[in-house]
Amino acid sequence: MPSSAVKVLDKNGQEITSVGFDRFGFNSEVPIDDLRSLYLRSHYSSAKPNDELNPDDEGPHHAQFTKGLSPYQSKSIYYPEHNSISYTTLARFPPVKLLAPSQRKRVLVTGGAGFVGSHLVDRLMLLGHDVTVLDNFFTGSRTTVSHWVGHPNFELVRHDVVEPFMIECDQIYHLACPASPPHYQFNAVKTVKTSFMGTLNMLGLAKRTKARFLISSTSEVYGDPEVHPQPEDYWGHVNPIGDRACYDEGKRVAETLTYGYHRQDGVDVRVARIFNTYGPRMNPYDGRVVSNFIVQALKGEDLTVYGDGTQTRSFQYIHDLVDGLICLMNSDETRPVNIGNGDEFTIGDFAELVREIVEKVQAEDGDKPSRQVQVVYKALPNDDPQKRRPDTTRAKESLKWQPRWTVRMGLEEMVRYYKAKMAEGSL
Ligand SMILES: NC(=O)c1ccc[n+]([C@@H]2O[C@H](COP(=O)([O-])OP(=O)(O)OC[C@H]3O[C@@H](n4cnc5c(N)ncnc54)[C@H](O)[C@@H]3O)[C@@H](O)[C@H]2O)c1
């Protein structure tokens, strides 16, 4: 596999060449370039009018950075003059580990076509496991996992988790739920149904099949916290009737159900309380702060900060989260575990950092920005928490897990991802 052009250093200045660990009897390690070849590359190559169709021709508009990263992705040709696209499927897949049947797990990932889910799916597939994705494509998209469709270890099922579903499996990662405020507030009742009935159905499945069950809960269960940083035994400060309640209370009751099944029925459960996570494949238009800022800066628009910019957030890179989820699933830890990066930024400083990194990447690529972008401030939405930072002591102690990616490194990779998307015409 060709190595990527970009060197990533971890928090200690060591180069990151792989992600994952061999821990708790489950080896989740894969080379970073193998993962990158699945997302840091355009799916489309552009053709000029009357170009002869050659699926191997990457085209002149192909983003520099992503050139030649992988020969395994489906390629399609984009015609800017008609704004049309011709899709090509290749019956060739990225190489996956060959596991003995006794080592191969049958893993169900609900919400596997979403941002977090698709990265988890990539990792589990490269590791050689059998993966089934269950998704209703409300916020996720087939394109995030299309490079696996047709692979003998992979199955993609369109299904809404509020309806029961039966399948034999060993592990269930239950991620299905819209995660960004505009999406979960779009139909608040449906969000509560997804959180409650979806979790009930998947716990019922875990009970019947004796599969281990992991739910992706959220730092939002702490609401607007009065304790900083938030440890897992903090009970939270949530407005039960506010705009965010459908999500916050939905996740709280999903946790209640999870521990109900654990205590009453002996279901083997894991609860991950995920803090703000960012990375490639995030929907750039769903109002989450990292993608908002990057896309605004790349488009030469001003960066919008809601409030006075003094509210703080911590941001974790997607590969750290996937490491944490896999570690937790395979560990013996049944208590809730915070998975997040404790490096805290004010939103104002974070906007400045994004602006600086976008300018750096543009300079490295020889791009001339149309204008110098500014940071502008607007009114704060309801119930937006002032401060949020994980206490990850439990994850450190019981999973031996801690984030490796610096925010700067993650942001650079994400800027390059969105830049490639813009270059191919899909953003
Ligand atoms: N991304 C974060 O920063 C973050 C933080 C905390 C918690 N989480 C949790 O992680 C999980 C994944 O989040 P994400 O960021 O990938 O969000 P996402 O919106 O990108 O992915 C959610 C996926 O679930 C699917 N889905 C939604 N409702 C469904 C339903 N009723 N039936 C079947 N599929 C359904 C969507 O189509 C999508 O593919 C969510 O449970 C979210 O609450 C994410």
Automatic annotation (TrEMBL):
GO terms in the biological process aspect are: D-xylose metabolic process; UDP-D-xylose biosynthetic process
Q: How does it sit in the membrane?
A: Single-pass type II membrane protein
Q: In which pathway does it act?
A: Nucleotide-sugar biosynthesis; UDP-alpha-D-xylose biosynthesis; UDP-alpha-D-xylose from UDP-alpha-D-glucuronate: step 1/1
Cite the NAD(P)-binding domain residue spans from the record.
108-414
Chemical reaction(s) catalysed: UDP-alpha-D-glucuronate + H(+) = UDP-alpha-D-xylose + CO2
* Coarse class of the protein's main subcellular location: cytoplasm
Record key words, sorted: Cytoplasm, Decarboxylase, Golgi apparatus, Lyase, Membrane, NAD, Signal-anchor, Transmembrane, Transmembrane helix
**Which metal ions or organic cofactors does this protein require, according to UniProt?**
NAD(+)
Q: EC no.?
A: 4.1.1.35
Highest taxon above the source species: Eukaryota
The record's GO CC annotations read: Golgi cisterna membrane
Protein name as annotated: UDP-glucuronate decarboxylase
